[in-house]
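$ ./design --mode recover --in tokens.txt
reading tokens...
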């Protein structure tokens, strides 16, 4: 786990507070793939509409209204988890979200997407924290200097090296 879902959920909370005119629509790919099976896209059925109605039935009316008003931000989580649905997922994202100019954020590991499919998107890569950044982050969260120094030292141990370099794990 690299923390993509946690980051997206944190972003949702920040977005609601910072941009109250917009509403986040979380779309975990693992929950979108069954909808892809149910939708007849060749007959014009929308995966977005079907997903919203299935996942958020109590709020579907207002969410669909916000989508029509272009005030929805789609948070597509885990496109790398699409497996055999990869082509269908990329097509759905491209046709229903990107080509319609919906505000969209997509999370994926490098292996999980084709750069051709999302060539119009801005790619943001979450880089590992350096040892200095890890130390700074610990010091801002642990007010006791001695304890902070001990924790920084422990984070350098082989068992914690990878996890400590992940910015989402120390936040």
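writing sequence...
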């Amino acid at each position: 786990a690299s923390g993509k879902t946690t980051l997206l959920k944190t972003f949702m909370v920040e977005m609601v507070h910072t941009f109250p005119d917009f509403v986040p629509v979380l779309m975990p790919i693992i929950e979108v793939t069954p909808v892809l099976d149910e939708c007849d896209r060749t007959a014009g059925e929308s995966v977005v509409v079907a997903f919203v109605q299935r996942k958020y039935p109590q709020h579907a009316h207002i969410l669909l209204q916000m989508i029509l008003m272009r005030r929805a931000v789609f948070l597509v989580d885990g496109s790398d988890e699409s497996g055999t649905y990869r082509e269908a997922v990329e097509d759905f994202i491209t046709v229903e979200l990107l080509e319609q100019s919906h505000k969209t954020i997509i999370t994926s590991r490098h292996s999980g997407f084709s750069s051709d499919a999302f060539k119009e998107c801005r790619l943001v890569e979450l880089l590992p924290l350096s040892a200095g950044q890890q130390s700074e982050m610990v010091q801002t969260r642990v007010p006791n200097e001695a304890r902070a120094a001990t924790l920084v030292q422990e984070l350098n141990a082989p068992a914690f090296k990878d996890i400590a370099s992940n910015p989402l794990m120390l936040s």
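exit 0
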